[in-house]
Design brief:
A 3-stranded antiparallel beta sheet has the order 1-3-2. Helix 2 crosses helix 4. It has 5 helices and 3 strands; from the N terminus they run H-H-E-H-H-E-E-H. The radius of gyration is 12 Å and the shape is globular. It has 102 residues and is mainly alpha-helical. 25% of the residues are buried.
Length: 102
């Protein structure tokens, strides 16, 4: 699955969310750093995400694609944001990992 502009990714049912959060966390620090950038900016373009994270474009794309597969990130009008279902879980995860302030 590729994260394409205008693509709607369905939200993850609540009962599956905990397992999906663990899968996201298993993606490593760089994946969480990309997620933190999306959360902090609320809505961010791919080019701006590359600039903010200072990761190579392919690495950013891989992390966004993986998050989209999990239902964590959605793209509308070339802007990426955390899905409504995932927002609270993402913030808790990032705070626990000290990537967002409490």
């Amino acid at each position: 699955m590729h994260v394409l502009p205008g693509t709607h990714i369905p939200d993850v049912p609540y009962e599956q969310l905990e397992a999906e959060v663990e899968r996201l966390e298993a993606g490593g620090f760089n994946a969480l750093f990309v997620l933190a950038a999306v959360v902090m900016h609320e809505s961010i373009s791919f080019d701006h995400l590359v600039e903010v994270t200072r990761f190579e474009r392919p690495e950013c794309f891989i992390h966004l694609d993986r998050m989209a597969e999990l239902g964590a990130v959605v793209c509308h009008d070339d802007m990426y944001r955390v899905s409504t279902t995932w927002h609270r879980a993402a913030v808790r995860l990032l705070r626990r990992r000290n990537l967002l302030p409490s």
